[in-house]
UniProtKB/TrEMBL annotation:
GO terms for molecular function: ABC-type transporter activity; ATP binding; ATP hydrolysis activity. Keywords: ATP-binding, Membrane, Nucleotide-binding, Transmembrane, Transmembrane helix, Transport. One of its GO terms (cellular component) is membrane. Residues 54-299 form the ABC transporter domain. The chain holds residues 329 to 645 of 657 of the full protein. This is ABC transporter ATP-binding protein. It comes from Natrarchaeobius halalkaliphilus. It is found in: Membrane.
Amino acid sequence: TQQLVWPMAQFGQVINMYQRAAASSERIFGLMDERGRIERDANAEDLEITDGRVEYESVSFSYDETDGSVSQETQRANRIIDDVSFEVDGGDTVALVGPTGAGKSTVLKLLLRLYDVDEGSIRIDDRDVREASLSSLRRSMGYVGQDSFLFYGTVEENITYGTFEASREEIIEAAKAAEAHEFIRNLPDGYDTMVGERGVKLSGGQRQRVAIARAVLKDPDVLVLDEATSDVDTETEMLIQRSIDHLTADRTTFAIAHRLSTIKDADLILVLEDGRIVERGTHRELLESGGLYSHLWGVQAGEIDELPQEFIERAQR
Ligand code: ATP
């Protein structure tokens, strides 16, 4: 029976690894447990990113399926993203800020093509993302998210996920750049320690650094950062910030930020409210203009106690 069981076990393992990879490739972008909804184009060609310039042109989107039963006005009223246009040069960082539910994550889901835009277009280096093969699009993007997903496997497997043929040296380099090498070295089996469900439990800050190492190794053209709100101590936060600074340098980066202090150096800050861009500019420009951003900044910096009533009312509408 040995001989019979053995290949079966092998087969089982292959299936398991496949399922694991399939599950994590969907969740690796973390933005979603969602299945998404897109039209696949059989003629799609691989995306070739040269500059990494990204353009949103008059993008509108709603989560409702449009089967023609709702009027155009209703559809317009249900828009989650409403006429969003902006441009980011290759290598620059654009930050998205705004109240909860404003549509920040949705803007990025459209870039990753979990959903297709209803109107307008998103182009990377002048190429509409709908014309690019999904695999090449996802390959060229890295994601470091709020609650970074680790699958059951070794630390090394978690770092190399999505990158084939990385040597142990390259993996260690990536971990060092992510300020993760030290803590990994101190795990029971170092890089061979099993983590994820049933494995050694890592803290939020550690999981995040593994995710950063994964992104460093993947070396994507476009990076999507969804800032962690998890509680980490100041020192860990500093380490994470430093590793993120490494990662975003010279790479087109989209950052969703909750603490404005982390994005004040962004090349462009977009303030979203109710699916629309209500303010845009650099940190300095936005402070000078005295709108929502400057007040959010005032609250976070402890300069004012709370948002003026007009902004609270606007956010509640
Ligand atoms: P937060 O800061 O809380 O993460 P956000 O600005 O990222 O918020 P989104 O997550 O983009 O906002 O959500 C925008 C709106 O779309 C919200 O009203 C939300 O309830 C809705 N929404 C998000 N995902 C879905 C979905 N899969 N199906 C239907 N509605 C959704």
